[in-house]
């Protein structure tokens, strides 16, 4: 009886943990929010395009796509970002 109780408690806790982890990832995917930002200027020749982060993110920022496919996060208020993005277009959404 004690073994069954322990097993049920473990299953209940595991279920609660999985539900919490699942609900967090469902609201905002980590690829749509930025938590660290590049402060050093990136050459505008290396920038391919940019996109805004999700409005559900804790901080408004931009994700810039570099030539070669790499993406990095920057703050839209940085002066070098404003200058560099004047001649760039937003990234196109991929269709499936």
Automatic annotation (TrEMBL):
<dbReference type="Pfam" id="PF00048">
    <property type="entry name" value="IL8"/>
</dbReference>
<dbReference type="GO" id="GO:0048020">
    <property type="term" value="F:CCR chemokine receptor binding"/>
</dbReference>
<dbReference type="GO" id="GO:0048245">
    <property type="term" value="P:eosinophil chemotaxis"/>
</dbReference>
<dbReference type="GO" id="GO:0061844">
    <property type="term" value="P:antimicrobial humoral immune response mediated by antimicrobial peptide"/>
</dbReference>
<dbReference type="GO" id="GO:0030335">
    <property type="term" value="P:positive regulation of cell migration"/>
</dbReference>
<dbReference type="InterPro" id="IPR036048">
    <property type="entry name" value="Interleukin_8-like_sf"/>
</dbReference>
<protein>
    <recommendedName>
        <fullName>C-C motif chemokine 1</fullName>
    </recommendedName>
</protein>
<comment type="similarity">
    <text>Belongs to the intercrine beta (chemokine CC) family.</text>
</comment>
<dbReference type="InterPro" id="IPR001811">
    <property type="entry name" value="Chemokine_IL8-like_dom"/>
</dbReference>
<keyword id="KW-0202">Cytokine</keyword>
<dbReference type="GO" id="GO:0006954">
    <property type="term" value="P:inflammatory response"/>
</dbReference>
<keyword id="KW-0325">Glycoprotein</keyword>
<keyword id="KW-0145">Chemotaxis</keyword>
<keyword id="KW-1015">Disulfide bond</keyword>
<feature type="signal peptide">
    <location>
        <begin position="1"/>
        <end position="23"/>
    </location>
</feature>
<dbReference type="GO" id="GO:0005615">
    <property type="term" value="C:extracellular space"/>
</dbReference>
<dbReference type="GO" id="GO:0070098">
    <property type="term" value="P:chemokine-mediated signaling pathway"/>
</dbReference>
<keyword id="KW-0732">Signal</keyword>
<dbReference type="InterPro" id="IPR039809">
    <property type="entry name" value="Chemokine_b/g/d"/>
</dbReference>
<feature type="domain" description="Chemokine interleukin-8-like">
    <location>
        <begin position="30"/>
        <end position="88"/>
    </location>
</feature>
<dbReference type="GO" id="GO:0008009">
    <property type="term" value="F:chemokine activity"/>
</dbReference>
